[in-house]
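Pasting as-is:
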Amino acid sequence: MATTSADVLPAGRTIAEAIASALRADITSGRLPAGVRLRQVELANRFSVSTTPVREAFAILQHEGLVRMHPQRGATVFVPSIDDLREHYEIRAALEALAVEHTAAKFRPRDALPLEAILDEMASCPDAARYIELNHEFHMTLYRLSGRARLVELISRLRTASDAYLQIYAAEGVPSPRLDREHREILDACKAGDADRAARAVRAHLAQTVEHVTKDLTALVPDGQPDGAA
C-alpha cells in the first residue's frame, strides 16, 4: 500500500479521528483505491502511533461506509455494489428532495450569490478532489437554507458516505457540463420559489448520478457485486 504525505496528524482532535481524517482523504481522492487492504502495522508506522488508534480509526470509517471489515483480511477500502448504490441514493433522494422543498419555499434573492459562486468555480475546476468538495459544498449550502437542522445533519452523513461512489464518477473527468446544468436547474427552481420543481430537479439529478456510476461499477465489477476477496 502506497503511503502519502499526510503523515503529520493535525491537532485539535483525537489521534483516531485525525488518522480517520487522513485515510478518508486518501480514499475519496483515489490514493487508496476500492478493495485495497489497510494494514494496521504499516499505518501505525506511517503515523508514528500504536495500532490501537488505527483500529479506532477503522471503526470510524466503517461507520461512515468507507471501510469494510473482513474476518480473514481485516480492513479494506469499501468496494461499492450496485445494490448498495441504489439503496443509498433512494434514501438520499427522499431526504434531499424534502430539504430542497423547504429551501425553495423560503429562498431569498441574496441566497443565490454564494451558490452561484460555487457553481462558477466548479465549471472551471479540473481537479477531481476539489470538484467533489465543491459539489458537497453546493448541496449542503442549499439544504442548510431549509432551516431543518436534523434533516441537514442526516443528509450530510449520507453524502459523506457517498464519496466512494463520487470518486468513481469523477474519475471520468471534471468539470462536468451535465452536472453543471443539473445544479443550475435546481438553483433556478429555488430562485423561482417552486418547491415541486426543485424537488423534481434534485431527484432527477441523483437518478442521473446513479445511472452513470452504475455503468462504471458494471465495468469495474461485471456482475455488479464486489468480489468476495475485496
